[in-house]
């Protein structure tokens, strides 16, 4: 059984048997390989399926579009990386560490990073579902790091993160620059009591 299947990560469309989970794992691995060779515009479900050794129809059983498949790759990367735990640190340090970890998930893979930005902006219902799951996971991590459920500050932090990631996805900033800028912004937002009103 694959590592992802054994940790309970499954495709977002349905529950999977061990064999189905293996197929989905192969498709997600192949998607990264195809993206690195073909770029986002050249990547198709057909090419990914061929690289994974499965039929195109089988791939479409699990993924409604290439955007869905690429979003799934990011979702899996996110949940496969346990939240950063920094004991005895102030909230700004903990939040900055969370955002650095999440923003660097695809930093070393420029083709995947750009593809994730494009994919997550898609209107495919399966992508929308994953956007919600990804957002909820990031919100949970931010809430834990913040140490409170401060809706206004959480909204600010989420806006900072999504805006910074869009800048990275468009190639306006490197992901290292995104992580550094996020840390500086987090320290300002969490240090300034007037930032929430």
From TrEMBL:
DNA-binding annotation, residue ranges on this chain: 44-63
SUPFAM superfamilies according to UniProt: Homeodomain-like (SSF46689)
Domain of life: Bacteria
One Pfam match: TetR_N
Record-linked Gene3D superfamilies: Tetracycline Repressor, domain 2
Keywords (A to Z) from UniProt: DNA-binding, Transcription, Transcription regulation
Molecular function GO labels: DNA-binding transcription factor activity; transcription cis-regulatory region binding
Domain spans labelled HTH tetR-type: 21-81
Keyword Magnesium attributed: no
Name under which the protein is recorded: TetR family transcriptional regulator
Organism expressing this protein natively: Nocardia aurantiaca
